[in-house]
Amino acid sequence: MKETLDVVIIGAGTGGLSALREVRKRTQNFVIINDGAWGTVCARVGCMPSKALIEAANAYHRRSTFSEFGIQGANSLTTDIPTVLRRVRQLRDHFVASTVKTTDDLGRRAISGRARLLAPDRVEVNGQQLYARSIIIATGSSPIVPEPWNKLGKRLFTTDTLFEQENLPTRMAVLGMGPIGVEMAQALSRLGVDVIAFGGNQAIGGLTDPQVNAAAIELLGCEFSLNLGEKADLTAINEGLQVRAGDSEVVVDAVLAALGRRPIIDGLGLETLGVSLNEQGMPPINPNTMQVADLPIFMAGDVNGQSAILHEAADEGHIAGFNATRLAAPVCFTRRTPLAIVFADPNIAVVGSQYCALESATTLVGEVTFSNQGRARVGQHNKGILRLYAAADSGRLLGAEMCAPSGEHMAHLLALAIDRSLTVRELLHMPFYHPVLEEGLRTALRMLAAQLPVDSESDLATCGAFDTEALD
What we know:
Elements (H helix, E strand, L loop, with lengths): L3 E7 L3 H13 L3 E5 L6 H5 L1 H15 L19 H20 L9 E3 L2 E5 L2 E4 L2 E10 L3 E3 L12 E2 L1 H4 L8 E5 L3 H12 L3 E6 L10 H12 L3 E4 L4 E5 L2 E6 L2 E5 L1 E4 L3 E3 L33 E3 L10 H15 L14 E4 L4 E6 L10 E7 L4 H5 L6 E7 L5 E8 L2 H13 L4 H5 L9 H12 L23
Parallel strand pairs: 1-2, 1-6, 2-3, 6-17, 8-15, 9-10, 9-15, 10-11
Antiparallel strand pairs: 4-5, 5-6, 7-16, 12-13, 13-14, 18-19, 19-22, 20-21, 21-22
C-alpha cells in the first residue's frame, strides 16, 4: 500500500519556508524538497548581500559632502574592495545560516534533489515517487540571461555571481535599469568602478510617474553614464566586452546582467497537471488562495511570476501552507497594499496604486521637491521629489511614487495610510515633528488638500460638544 503525505513542498526559499511554518503547525506528515544550495534567494544572492554592498558604497560616498560640513581630508580616503567584498560574504553567510536553521531538524523530511511533477498528486525526486494530498511549488527564480551571453564566461556577472568576486573590474557595464540594476550601478560607481548603465526602457526602478522618473534619471545620471531606450547587445573583444545600444558603443572589462529574474519552472512538469498553460508556460494561479486552477496544487513566491518581493513571497507561502493543509475549500486572503522600494540614494519607492493605473480625470496630485526642505538641507540630502495621488471625490489617498531622501520610511507610513483608507485631511491631522523629512510629505498633502472642497479652516480636528474631545 502506497504512503500518502499530507503535503509536499518543492523549494526552500522564502515562499517554501513560509509555507513550511504553516504546514508544521497542522501536520508532521510532509517533506520539503530543495534543488541546490539551501537558503533563500534574498539571503544568499539578493536583498541582504546587495544591501551590504550598498551600505559600504554609501559610507564611502559620504566623503563627497565632508567639505560642506567643515571636515577636511576626504581626498585621502580610499576603498579596499577585496575587504568590502569579504564583509559582504561574511554577512551573507550569517544570513544564510539563519534561514538554513529552519530545516535543520527535519531529518528525512528535508530532501536534496530536483523534483518533477508526475500528476496533481505525485512527485518524483531522486528516482523515488512521492504521493501527496497537496503540493506546494516554491522553486523561486533565476537571473535572466539571454542564451548567447552564456558563452561570455567569467566576464558576465549576475547577482548570483557578483558577490563571489574577490575584486571588482575597473570598468563595468550594467544592463537593465530595474530595481536591481539601479541599486548595483550606483553602488559599484560609488565604490570607484567606472560604470556605464543601459536600460531598454525610458523608465527606471519600476517608476511610472514621468516627473519622478525624470528626477531619478537626472540624479543618477550625475553619478554614472546612463543610456536608456535601446536594447543592448554584447560581443567579446580581446580581453573585454563590447556593449552596443542604439548609437552608444563602449568596451568594458565585465558586464552585470540585471535584466530581472524568471520563474524556475523548466523540467518541473507543469504540463502533467492537465490545465492550460500560458505563453510563459504558467498555469492559472489565484493570487488570493495561491491555488492552481481547482487542483490541490499551490504556487508561492517568485515562481508564480506575480511579485518578486520578499514580503509578498512570505505572504504567499503563508497562504499556500494554510490552504494546503485544509480539507475544506481554500480560504481567500486579502493581499497587502502594494509596496516596492529601490535602495538607491535617494530611495525610489512606489506605494499603492501606480501613476500609470490612475485616471487623470478622477485623481488629484500633490508633490514636494526636497531641494529646499530644511532637514534635507541640513543633512546634505536635499534632492528628489515625492508625488501623492488622491481620489478627487473623497480625498482618499490612493498611492505615491517618489525618489526622495529616506523614502523607504515615508513609503511605509503611506502604505499604512492607504491600507486604512485614510483621506488627505485625516493624514494632515497627525503630528509632524520639526525638523523631519516628513514635513515634506505634509507639503504634498497640503497641495492635495488645496484641491479638495474646503471643510475646515485648520489641519487640526475640532473638539466635540462642550469644547472637549470626550466626557468620561
